[in-house]
Amino acid sequence: MKRGFALTIVALACLMAHVQASDKISGNEILTVQKGGVPDKVYTGDKPALRIATYNIGKNEASDNVTDFTALNTAIKKINADIIAVLEVDNKTQRSQKIDQLKLLADANKMHYVFGKALDFDGGEYGLGLLSKYKILHSQVIKLPSGDAEQRVVLLVQVEIPGFDSAPIIMVTHLDWQKDPAIRTGQARYLLDLSIGDAPSDFKNISSAIKILAGDFNSTREEQPLKEIGYFFNRVSKPGTDTRSWPAINPAIDIDHIFTFKGQKWDTRALEIPHNSPEFSWSAASDHLPVIADIQLTEQ
Question: pTM of the predicted model, to two decimals?
């Protein structure tokens, strides 16, 4: 037997042994991302447009009456977005007098909604949600790695938006708040894994889907968690726009953000973080200011 032929036989034997040892390998894994999904497309005519906001509706200075949603409803109307990522939402907790906060906001503003529970709290639930002018096709709540800290989640919502060839997936999240950014950094990395299908979700073609990530990241743009997110996402920004959003009464830091996935290209038409004015006191509605963006898709 020639030496080259003998080596070939040995190599084949090793390969067969490897295949028998692992019944999970079919030989197609490296091609999976290429199957199906949302195809690339450059828009030359009418470009799909979206007005999206992220808004932490937590503490406010207006009243001890948590059933009074006058200021919040006014805020939602003024934001007037197609999609609003909503953070720090109570669902029938004792402190909120058993009110479904997100449903009240949705009903008052004639919007669709979905709630994502982060944890059981105070006789009810606490988490985040999404308000939408358009039909919600599917949603899923996924836990983020949180260690011994408060459990954090991401809410994935696919919305049927007019003008888009493919329904975008909106990822709503609220990252850990502690000064040590270690947990937030791990959470940011997990968001990246989800966005490219390296972590399990219900969304089969998420890696190529149109994706927008929004929420309260408890991190400024100079901090490591946002630098991690920047690996696959672009932060929505506009030259000359002040993006500080907390505290609402006199903003000091930018911790509320909107990101678009790097698989798509967007044109930021406008970016607004409204401040208190004689017309409306945003700090009466929440201790955060909303971040509102008008964006236009140029390539999916």
Answer: 0.87
